[in-house]
Design a protein that fits this description.
This protein is α/β, with parallel strands linked by helices. The chain is built from 20 helices and eleven strands. Bound molecules: 6-O-phosphono-beta-D-fructofuranose.
Length: about 550
């Protein structure tokens, strides 16, 4: 593959100043006013993604009409993408070029779902892991006492936790009962090195039927290794010093030797290719717990991801979902100065989606060094946060209504089956929140509300300013028919590619994480008692922590 074209910072492209002008012209207008005299706006700014594997089946609807932009701005954003040679970026991504340019590697996680060929030399073969997960699911493994393994505890952190945790929460049937005489697999995730995390799972665990999956691409992440050692110790205490505890371990890792040295049988160590980054790894062997939970339905998850790969690769920018998502995010960040994005999934199954997205966006694009080594002049990844609705409505939505900040919102709404009235309440709330946060309530509406309560005029005047909601919070609504493996695959792949679009245009590398490494170095130094060389505050904190420990002995 040829070299990438020389990098031009986005501010030096002709579309950038044009977009700055657009932003200035647009800023005095209320967001809701963009619908005035434009009855077709909602329709025009909505992309409908038809399921290519099933005729006449809509897989996802993405309504961008509550974003603060118009057709001209969208056209300028698309022009920016063209000037930034996003097409070349997509080509390089899918053709295995070293888009991870600092580590000189491809980022071919799409190969795990058949969305691109694997880079030459290393296959995307997960057969051994799949056979293991299926056998596990079907009760074919026993622990050291001969009892069938029915509890899987995943020990991992970051990408080795968030993706599979989210997918298992979204897809495993919480009501799963006994099938063909086999109890359903219980699956737990432990990520925090705080002993309480593992302890709270172990307290309900039966060692004889438990399997720990040490999930660590590097097999060197201190938190995961510390938890793995604690798990090993617990097994020995529970099952006896002579028990064959290797029957209670498997690993997902590239560091096969380290895993074997830890005590895991080599045939139970499942690697993932180096070109699959941690936060993009749920599609790979890291998805083992998901396979154990949902079995063959895992393939629907891969298909969902794959059809988004095809869509992203082949669809003109004017209709391309991840391209719109990336560009609109960039518009909010760089031109409207909105610094934070809230992910608001209205589905309990997606309660870990904000945390997954946080890692995806912030670890990928939370960077300032450009491809040419210079510092960026443009803001990069926003601060990502959020939680599942409707819970957030009773916590942080107040700030969205009446605070002083603008936040870009992503509503994610799986419609779900009819039947239980609560599902309908959930969906109606999501749609209503997007509307209310855009429309707001002006002083006259506030007065009307109070007057309708029968308050005296003076009281109406006194209270009315406190009821004013400024509105104008921009949002995107992604609506899916249901939350199943296929649609989850679509959702996750959409965001992965959104992040790529932004990283490419900003000119940063979404696939490394040197910042995280820096924090780890200091933790390592402190763990070895090395306080010298730290700043006075840090040295003092380390000393005081030691004093607390001594006093509590
Ligand atoms: O937090 C940094 C990080 O390297 C993530 O990118 C990664 O997902 C996580 O640590 C876990 O890494 P590993 O799978 O090697 O334990």
């Amino acid at each position: 593959m040829s070299e990438a074209s020389p990098f031009v910072p986005p501010q030096h492209l002709s579309a950038w100043p044009l977009l700055e002008t657009h932003a200035q012209q647009l800023s005095p207008k209320p967001l809701a006013a963009l619908f005035d005299n434009d009855p077709d706006r909602a329709n025009r700014l909505t992309l409908i993604f038809e399921n290519p594997t099933e005729l006449d089946q809509t897989a996802l609807i993405a309504d961008f009409s509550k974003q603060k932009l118009n057709d001209e701005i969208l056209a300028s954003l698309i022009h920016l993408a063209r000037e930034a040679r996003l097409d070349e970026g997509i080509d390089r991504l899918f053709n295995g070029a070293p888009v991870n340019f600092t580590e000189n590697r491809a980022a071919s996680h799409m190969a795990m779902r058949g969305g691109c060929p694997p880079p030459p030399g290393i296959g995307a073969d997960t057969r051994a892991m799949r056979t293991f997960a299926f056998d596990l699911r079907e009760g074919m493994f026993t622990g050291s006492t001969g009892k069938t393994i029915r509890h899987l505890i995943n020990l991992g952190i970051g990408g080795s936790d968030l993706g599979p945790r989210l997918a298992v929460e979204a897809l495993a049937d919480p009501r799963g009962g006994i099938v063909c005489g086999i109890e359903p697999m219980r699956i737990d995730f432990v990520s925090n090195v705080d002993p309480r995390d593992l302890d709270s799972v172990l307290v309900h665990a039966d060692a004889a039927s438990t399997l720990f999956v040490v999930s660590s691409k590097s097999f060197s992440t201190p938190e995961t290794l510390a938890n793995a050692k604690a798990a090993r110790q617990w097994l020995l205490e529970q099952l006896g010093e002579d028990a064959d505890i290797s029957a209670h371990f498997a690993a997902v890792s590239n560091a096969i030797e380290s895993a074997v040295t830890f005590g895991i049988k080599p045939e139970r160590v499942f690697p993932l290719p180096e070109w699959v980054g941690g936060r993009y790894s749920v599609w790979s062997s890291i998805g083992l717990p998901l396979l154990a939970a949902i079995g063959g339905t895992f393939d629907d998850f891969l298909v969902g991801g794959r059809i988004i790969d095809d869509h992203f690769r082949l669809t003109p920018f004017e209709q391309n979902l991840p391209v719109w998502m990336g560009l609109i995010g960039l518009w909010n960040t760089n031109f409207l100065g909105i610094q934070s994005t809230a992910a608001l999934p209205y589905a309990h199954g997606l309660r870990s989606f904000p945390a997954w997205l946080q890692q995806l966006e912030m670890e990928s694009n939370g960077k300032h060094t450009l491809r040419n080594g210079n510092r960026t002049e443009a803001a990069t990844a926003p601060i990502v946060w959020g939680s599942a609705g409707t819970n957030g409505q009773h916590a942080f939505h107040q700030l969205l209504y009446q605070g002083t900040r603008q936040v870009a919102l992503d509503f994610i709404i799986p419609i779900g089956e009819e039947g239980d009235p609560r599902q309908r309440i959930l969906v109606d709330n999501a749609i209503a929140q997007a509307a209310a946060l855009m429309m707001g309530r002006d002083i006259n509406a506030a007065r009307d509300t109070l007057a309708r309560r029968g308050l005296p005029d003076a009281e109406v005047e006194r209270l009315a300013p406190h009821l004013v909601c400024q509105g104008g919070q921009p949002s995107t609504t992604l609506m899916l028919p249901r939350l199943d493996a296929f649609h989850l695959g679509i959702l996750l792949a959409l965001y992965e590619h959104k992040v790529f679009v932004q990283g490419w245009i900003w000119g940063i590398n979404p696939f490394d994480q040197y910042g995280v490494e820096h924090g780890k170095d200091i933790a390592r130094a402190l763990a070895s008692g090395e306080v010298a060389g730290q700043d006075p505050s840090t040295a003092q904190l380390a000393r005081l922590a030691e004093e607390f420990r001594l006093r509590m002995r």
